[in-house]
What does this fold into?
Amino acid sequence: MSIVVGFGPDTRSAGGVRFAGQLARTTGEAVVLCCVIYDSFASPALRDFNGIDDDWRRELTGMASRALAESRRALPDGVEVEEVVRTSRSVPDALEREGRDRGARLLVVGSASSGAFGRIGLGTTSDRLVHSARIPVGLAPSGYTPDGEPVRRLVVAIGPGPAPGPLAREVARTADWLGASVDIVSFAVRGTARTAMSAFTDAEVYEHWTQLARDAQKALAASLHDRAPDLEIGRHGVLNGDRWSEAVGSYPWRTGDVAVVGSSSHGGLAQVFLGSTGSRILRTSPLPVMILPRP
It folds into this structure.
């Protein structure tokens, strides 16, 4: 088993590598640093016979070697590391294939360079992975630094819905792998009501939604307890705000937490599909996020 962390030769953020190192220190797993070179010259129709593409390949190979060296330096001491360079016309496909071939526990990527510091920004590769990968995906905020802390708690964010048996199975497995406790929470955003009637209607809708979310939390906690009787489980209720950043920020996050989002039911079987609510949580979480696939 291993943790595969993927990046390109021009990567500028080590947040994903640091998160992978934190996981490795927590679990004892090896880290595979996988640098993927996008091969735009794979098609014969695009080849240049003057040798410019060969020069460009050599330059990219050198960049990949430097990126791997920098990534290795970002890992904590004592972590088993393997370095690989892959070339592909599809970076997401290459990373997922690497993860599947190695039976990886998690495929980790960092925030896109366009993301705000301390938050997760999705780029072309990470966006594709969180909507199509068949293994769990982990993302780290820009500039993420775990300060030597192991992963201690999984903060599982859920909404209202039926008893989440498949999610419970994946959360229990992940908590056991990390030796972490589980906290279950729901986030809600309430708009500003303009009239007395809309305020009354919104209140009824919100109260009903809140009760359904609490019922779902209770069902998930019971299912987790059945699967892992010794697992420490907490329910944190429903946290709300006028904006997603306010709702998610009201949770008492601490170093060593990892947010967990289950795959949306809109996705296919045995794959990740990040729904709209999960996407908002991912973009506003101040700490790393795991997206677990539907079994």
